[in-house]
Recover the amino acids of this structure.
């Protein structure tokens, strides 16, 4: 996965935790639209592995 893609997904998770859902979806959608089929699989795996990042602080805060 490109570093840009990973950063965008991490940002999307951060925005979701801040209840900025429209911005979160727009951020994630931008990388979905530019990803090739291999990267789509990597994104799907990342989302499964990091689903909790969307509801709690991955550093253990919330």
């Amino acid at each position: 996965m490109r570093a840009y893609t990973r950063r965008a997904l991490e940002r999307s998770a951060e925005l979701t935790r801040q209840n900025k859902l429209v911005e979160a979806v727009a951020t994630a959608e931008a990388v979905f639209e530019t990803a090739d089929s291999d990267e789509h699989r990597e994104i799907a795996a990342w989302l499964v592995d990091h689903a909790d990042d969307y509801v709690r602080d991955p550093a253990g805060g919330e």
Summary: The helical segments are 3-17, 21-34, 37-49. The chain has a mean pLDDT of 89. The chain is about 70% helix and 0% strand.
